[in-house]
């Protein structure tokens, strides 16, 4: 693959892919991990990383050996945040959810066929789940935020994802079977909120509610995560109600319209 000349859109796609991989964690990712996850050859990855570093988009951490996001990314993000004041809008809802429930609260965005966690607010309960944090990506339909969003997509878009589900869900397909996901989507539409019963990590439960854009499409999601005993059936209705109330509040602030 590295012997093939990289031109135009192919270069952009590969660079974007590497940046997303590095951005999965504040600690970055080692070269070996980037090669494995990207599917590119080692020389190709190394060449692209060096070019990104020369532009300040990435840094190489000599202590860990990992590649991490560079200062130019911070500058770009600070400019972009003026167009997308999501933290100013979503943070108060996250704080209210964390304070009211004691669980950790999250705000995620849909990016293509994935959800990306943008914001986190820790709850007061001393035992926590650490499955989700800023930058973590999941396929749509996986985890509570992705299920909440996918449940309110048009049926044709849902079926497109389900048709090639094993490839879409990847490593999560074993626990998130097509049949189980279909059932979860229907339950989410009926109740208005999703429940993930430890399917990503055993014992780590989550619940989510979609936030809608101006066209009525689910574009973001609020979620709560914690240990299984904190999400017992008799508490799910209470948590779901809180999630939906805050999701509706953010939808209105963003000028959106909830799906009917």
From TrEMBL:
The keyword Cell inner membrane does not apply. Residues 72-256 form the IclR-ED domain. The keyword DNA-binding applies. GO terms for molecular function: DNA binding; DNA-binding transcription factor activity. Residues 9-71 form the HTH iclR-type domain. It comes from the Bacteria. InterPro entries: GAF-like_dom_sf, HTH_MetabolicPath_Reg, Tscrpt_reg_IclR_C, Tscrpt_reg_IclR_N, WH-like_DNA-bd_sf, WH_DNA-bd_sf. This is IclR family transcriptional regulator. One of its GO terms (biological process) is negative regulation of DNA-templated transcription. Keywords: DNA-binding, Transcription, Transcription regulation.
């Amino acid at each position: 693959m590295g012997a093939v000349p990289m031109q135009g859109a192919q270069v952009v796609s590969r660079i974007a892919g590497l940046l997303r991989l590095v951005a999965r964690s504040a600690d970055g990712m080692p070269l070996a991990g980037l090669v494995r996850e990207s599917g590119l050859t080692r020389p190709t990855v190394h060449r692209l990383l060096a070019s990104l570093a020369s532009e300040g988009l990435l840094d190489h951490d000599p202590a860990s050996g990992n590649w991490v996001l560079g200062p130019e990314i911070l500058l770009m993000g600070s400019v972009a945040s003026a167009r997308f004041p999501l933290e100013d809008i979503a943070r108060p809802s996250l704080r209210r959810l964390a304070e009211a429930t004691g669980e950790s609260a999250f705000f995620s965005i849909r990016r293509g066929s994935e959800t990306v966690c943008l914001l986190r607010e820790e709850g007061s309960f001393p035992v926590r789940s650490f499955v989700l944090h800023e930058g973590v990506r999941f396929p749509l339909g996986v985890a509570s935020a992705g299920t909440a969003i996918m449940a309110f997509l048009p049926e044709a878009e849902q079926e497109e994802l389900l048709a090639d589900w094993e490839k879409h869900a990847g490593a999560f397909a074993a626990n998130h079977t097509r049949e189980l996901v279909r059932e979860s989507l229907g339950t989410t539409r009926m109740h208005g909120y999703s429940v993930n019963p430890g399917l990503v990590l055993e014992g780590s439960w989550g619940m989510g509610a979609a936030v809608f854009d101006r066209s009525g499409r689910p574009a973001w999601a609020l979620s709560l995560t914690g240990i299984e005993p904190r999400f017992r059936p008799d508490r799910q209705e209470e948590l779901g109600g809180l999630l939906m109330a805050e999701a509706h509040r953010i939808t209105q602030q963003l000028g959106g319209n909830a799906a009917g």
